[in-house]
Amino acid sequence: MTEEVIAQPPAASRRARELGAKARKALGDPRAAVNLRWLRTMSGATVERILEVLAELDDLVPVEQEMRRRHVAGGRPGYAQIRAPFELYALVRILQPKHVVEAGVSSGISSAHFLLALDRNRSGTLHSLDLPTLQRGPVLQPDESPVSLPPGLATGWAIPFRSSRWDLRIGASQALLPRLVEELPTVDLFLHDDLHTPEHLAFELATVRPKLSVGAPVLADNTKWTGEAFPHFAAEVGARVSRRGTDDLVGFRFPRRTRRTTPIPTPGPSA
Ligand SMILES: C[S@@+](CC[C@H](N)C(=O)[O-])C[C@H]1O[C@@H](n2cnc3c(N)ncnc32)[C@H](O)[C@@H]1O
Asked: DSSP letters along the chain, please?
């Protein structure tokens, strides 16, 4: 995979991590340390602008604490999903997208951080798709995925605030994403974090492609399970993939409108 790498002054990286430290501690996920290099590549912003936005993260501490409390109460003490919640927040603050689309919500870590940033921007909408898998009983069993939905709760159950900027649609992305994309004038940021198969990721990327705006971050988590789907798509649109440190969370900025060269693949099975 061709990867984009930006040189990084170590002091700036340290400062970025420091600025996110309180929020990270409150959320209780050490993996959420801000990766400045990735954020620079994905935003195209200067270090100064990024640090300015990261300085807002202390304001998120009460929300992070409450999301952690809800995860603990829900039997998921070590669980926080997306490893880059603060980068997601910063991307939305910096790029001011009108339409953010995410596939895969679960308890709502990524959704919450998109919404916090959109609310602060006072513009834009988060369109989220989620087909919950249901936890079998009151207690999460060792053979069950922590992304499953505890009984009596709804998708986004760890999010402690309401936002009028959230367009949450419950159902399979295979059915809902094409309809959503049809409705939207543009997709200004896309995050794949639902069914991690190569076929499904390829389907989602091909589906959003016609509406991706120039410069839109296109992100995919858990790509260790999706084979070559992401790098293939990046190569097809002429983009270079940027990996978040050693994670399998990857992304690129959509370079320009290109003519479709391959048909949209058939959606994979529902989760
Ligand atoms: C990894 S979790 C999402 C984590 C979330 N982004 C976060 O940061 O907390 C994946 C979610 O996608 C849902 N899902 C699985 N297959 C799906 C599909 N075909 N369409 C929509 N959602 C799906 C799962 O039930 C689960 O809620």
From this structure: --B------HHHHHHHHHHHHHHHHHHT-GGG---HHHHHHHH---HHHHHHHHTTGGGGHHHHHHHHHHHHHTT-TT----S-HHHHHHHHHHH--SEEEEE--TT-HHHHHHHHHHHHHT--EEEEEE-PPBPSSSS--TTS-TTSBPTT--TTTT--S--TTEEEEES-HHHHHHHHHHH-S-BSEEEE-S---HHHHHHHHHHHGGGBPTT-EEEES-GGGSTTHHHHHHHHHT--BEE-TTSS-EEEE--S-----SPPPPP----
